[in-house]
Amino acid sequence: MAVSQIGSYFVGQIGVRSPNSCSYDLLGLCAAKLLQESGLDVRVLEARDRVGGRTYTKRDPSYGYVDLGGSYVGPTQDRILRLAKELDLKTYVVDMGEKAVLYFEGVRQTTSDTGMYLAQLNNPLGMLDSNNIFRKTQNLAQQVPLAAPWNAPRAKEWDIMTVQEFINNECWTSSFTCNSDFVFNLLFYDLSTTGWPGVIYKVWCSPHSAAKPTRSPYCITCFTWLLGEGERRVTSATNGAQERKIVGGAMQVSEKIAALLGDRVVLSSPVLRIDQEDTVAIVTTHSGQQYRAKYVISSVPLPVLHRILFEPPLPAMKLQLVQRMAMGCIIKTNTYYRTAFWKEKGFSGEALSDIGPVSYCVDDTKPDGSHPAITGFILAGHARDVCEMSPEERKQAVCEYYAEVFQCPEFLHPVNYVEQNWMADPFSGGCFVATLGPGVLTSFGRAIRKPFGKVYFAGTETAVKWNGYMDGAVESGERAAREVLHAMGKISEDQIWQEEPPSPDVPHTPFEDDPLEKILPSVPQFLYILLALLVLLLSVLWVYLF
Amino acid sequence: MAVSQIGSYFVGQIGVRSPNSCSYDLLGLCAAKLLQESGLDVRVLEARDRVGGRTYTKRDPSYGYVDLGGSYVGPTQDRILRLAKELDLKTYVVDMGEKAVLYFEGVRQTTSDTGMYLAQLNNPLGMLDSNNIFRKTQNLAQQVPLAAPWNAPRAKEWDIMTVQEFINNECWTSSFTCNSDFVFNLLFYDLSTTGWPGVIYKVWCSPHSAAKPTRSPYCITCFTWLLGEGERRVTSATNGAQERKIVGGAMQVSEKIAALLGDRVVLSSPVLRIDQEDTVAIVTTHSGQQYRAKYVISSVPLPVLHRILFEPPLPAMKLQLVQRMAMGCIIKTNTYYRTAFWKEKGFSGEALSDIGPVSYCVDDTKPDGSHPAITGFILAGHARDVCEMSPEERKQAVCEYYAEVFQCPEFLHPVNYVEQNWMADPFSGGCFVATLGPGVLTSFGRAIRKPFGKVYFAGTETAVKWNGYMDGAVESGERAAREVLHAMGKISEDQIWQEEPPSPDVPHTPFEDDPLEKILPSVPQFLYILLALLVLLLSVLWVYLF
Prior knowledge:
The structure is a homodimer. By secondary structure, the first copy, chain A, is an alpha/beta fold. Chain A has 19 helices and 23 strands.
């Protein structure tokens, strides 16, 4: 029996080898690994000449290694942590440092925690607004069933209401509305979103920002992201999604599984077509090689799935869904310096700004202090602005950005620069994850994981938890593999979805609720309280005077 | 010298043969025809086993022929009219009849002109609102440069403002707002639009309709459509886009060009990849056949363009644009009856309704009275609802719809039924045209016609006039062919875009302005006038009394 996993030519980036997950290409390899461990004969067809997909660790003696794709892991991402441990990979805690820079609308300030939005707002009413909207978002998110968000009671409404509209409806002060506008301009303008929920919240906290009204992501997407682990888990470094990186680079997860699978992984084999007959699926690659399989797992990123010609053709709903998914616009850069001089000046290397081309940057010096570097993310509109530059021109623009944001001309003299322009990557179509337009989730979302004959679909975009992360990629790959095992009668239907036990090495502790956040009134409640106090005062005065 | 035109496998629907235009597949053949007439050696690679793409004329002795794809032509569509005449094809005037049915929210009424929105509104203020918004839309549209709508002064704003938001801002009465809501629910819900501007305006006119707030198309798209020829040209039958059909079917345009090109048209040859070297582009088909060409014209519909693997890869902006374009959801049906009994009952066969599955239907009896039939369009959300039914089930649902809408049980007994589910069509991805999400046009639109090396891009989606129509397909195919001629030094740059002389056989007359439409005040103007009259009256009374 052959189980073919296909990574079509556009799956290339996803990368590991075969059906690699839609993202981070872990999926394909994870599925193949699980199936092989169950005694099946698998083949992994990888479009690129490397495994790893949207994880991409580049190596060079001058800078050691750098993750130019997916990189961070953290508590509650128990699947990727389990897999990394099994493959004998170590993680290290990222040093976020102390002093980050926020630079919006020409106003520069430093802060010890860009995540502490409450502390950033210098307007007390704005603080109430901010607190209330985060609390309300969390509460509304509880109504969304993660595995089928289209069934949420208000799904249709939330699927066409942008987060900006939600904020405009809920907020009483302009300061918070302005802040939130910036998010959309920076990350979500015209839906070329990065799909990076962590940044959404981080940028919400920036006190000095404003932007023209624009499009933003849809509430239901936001709610679904947040519901998984909660806003603080998603946005935090310590105890959150950005806590750790994998020593040696995230692509090693794929490389090590590929080594286990040996010659069952076939590189540079983009899939051309999948023909399904009664008992067999025939997978043909660009070079004409054919694989006959009882089952196929596709880990091709959904926005580029129709690169594969299906015969019979894909069902209408799946064909329409994949046309309505688009990958985000991202260029990830690493700029190297002789010394980490910014630390001597008291900067952590972290900065958020609206001046572009970089939107968010963070220190990427190795834990032992070697290869001092800053990782800079060029996102959405800024990525479009510079995507036609040469890498040399982008390097210059990035260095000028650092010099300006940190007010430090030493940044103009890097010793090295590497980048990955995911926008131009034909095998993944973009990064980090796919985004959906208005109404798409509720109208077409049901088709996302639906198998088609002998073909099953993986990809971090199909994950229920940590959707869009490496952990979601592992979840989806293993789920698809268990769907195949169920179809073969080897496991029961209720074994397809499995809970993951908590990682013993990277424990997660619940975030302590700040009692203040729970009891602080919203702006209208505050005004009612004021009014009640006024009435009370007047009553007392009335009694006292008459 | 070889000029290859490619119709990738997904281009199939587009249809004619080669680079066929993105839509109506005329493009590819038109380009090939023009290039061959200029003395070049061309090859047309057509993905399907037929030419014609999104025009698709099905033939059978039981019903003669039927256009299951693009069909209508009309005055000012001078390019397709010129081409049809050159190919010795005739057109006939569609008989729209007299009595159409409007059936919304359970209220059925008949009307002599579904396009006469002014006559339909039984609320005088609503009529002022309606008149004002149509007038204002036309005026704003004048600010949009057709060839580069992203350069309009308020492009960014209009590209994220939905038509619904525009109407909500501009309208004072709920009756018109309700009417317009219906459009979005029917045609544009969650952007699964049909891209059919004619219907937008037709449905705007329906007096009894309402829908939950939802997403709608973006103003700039609407303005661009309208600017081409004006709202009445787009929506009208007589003197408008729905005036005529081609005798024998629209696909004949492609078939006749294919006959002229002979064995230069290669059917069933979906393109797999395009490799560009210094002086040559190598086009490889799925079957491994290779064509070496100096230039290539792609008429693959843009939403499915990344089915072709480009080496070097497509530029970032083009790759991102095509991910953000999606084809509409449409199932076109023709139901045949023994007699045109509806005409005996005084119905034209035209109806608009919100009950589904059909949204709009119209008589399709042949001009000689043979093969009595109703054409029914199943659109957007309704198409999603029934796309997983069997054709037999859909036939039943369509007949029940006609019986209900026309209150006439004879519709339950058809003698024949044919349909084309474009939603499931892998070569075109859908119909009629591609739609764009919020902000996409201004952010990525510039890439739409931009050549990539030796590859030029056609498709009705790239047309400046009659974008989305067969005429736009011809325009884009001929423009792309002239771009190639210019690149070869055979014509100058200013010869690329050519004005088309008016068709002598299908003359267009200007629509007469109804003076009332010009002078009727808007609702606020009307209220000001009332107020002024009141002040005047009070002044007179004051003078008279004191």
